[in-house]
Amino acid sequence: MALSDVKVRSAKPEAKAYKLTDGDGMVLLVHPNGSKYWRLRYRFGGKEKMLALGKYPEVSLADARARRDEARKLLANGVDPSENKKAVKVEQEQEAITFEVVARDWHASNQKWSASHSARVLKSLEDNLFASVGKRNIKDIGTRDLLVPIKAVEKSGRLEVAARLQQRTTAIMRFAVQNGLIDYNPAQEIAGAIATAKRKHRAALDLNRIPELLHRIE
Question: Are 25 and 42 a contacting pair, CB within 8 Å?
Fold first, then answer.
């Protein structure tokens, strides 16, 4: 007999967990602590399996039935709903992997850095990159996406900062490749696109002044 909203709502806990049947394999599992969970029993590949449809009352009777019907459609098409649910979850998790998430993981992996250097690196990323590409999916980021914010730093005259950002961006994307998040490092193509600061060469010290210098050091 199909369940009703009243029957689901009024189901009381007992000493042991028990099930209330709705139909087409869907049941309401009532635990001794009063928690209620929707489950779908089905067969796939000759094996009996169970699919979690959610917790009541967050998932209502109507919503649970809709999820059951979707699972039944998958079964009709030869798809295991439990495996499909896992695949969807993995895809959603991958979509949540942004440049900022990867950059912070890369930063945390460099444990040999001093505390002061580590703080400077992170602040540089926060100040110059995260606003423009931080929320972007790591898989969707191309060379130009990375180059634009670095070029902005270069145009401001901070050439050394821009050069370091280029190096760090390349390292971050390499880290993403090494962890299987992307197949190719788009930051590699930035090489040569950023101007380098000219080093100032100091005049050579006159040999006759070496004794004077040593005296000052003492």
Answer: yes
Per-residue pLDDT, averaged over 185-214, amounts to 71
Spatial distance between the Cα atoms of 137 and 116, rounded to a whole number of angstroms: 29
Among 3.40.50.150, 2.60.120.10, 1.10.3120.10, 1.10.150.130, what is the CATH number of 99-190?
1.10.150.130
- Distance (Å, rounded) from C-alpha 24 to C-alpha 2? 10
| pLDDT score at 201 | 52
Kindly indicate the confidence band of residue 196, based on its pLDDT and cuts at 50, 70 and 90: confident
Could you tell me which residues come within 8 angstroms of residue 161 by beta carbon, excluding any fewer than 6 positions away? 124, 128, 153
Query: Helix crossing, 81-95 with 61-76: angle to 10°?
Result: 110
CA distance 176 to 103: 9
Is residue 199 predicted with pLDDT exceeding 60?
Answer: no
pTM exceeds 0.85 for this model:
no
Architecture of domain 5-94 in this structure: 2-Layer Sandwich (3.30)
63-80 tens-digit pLDDT:
999 999 999 999 999 999
Give the separation between CA 140 and CA 37, rounded to whole angstroms.
38
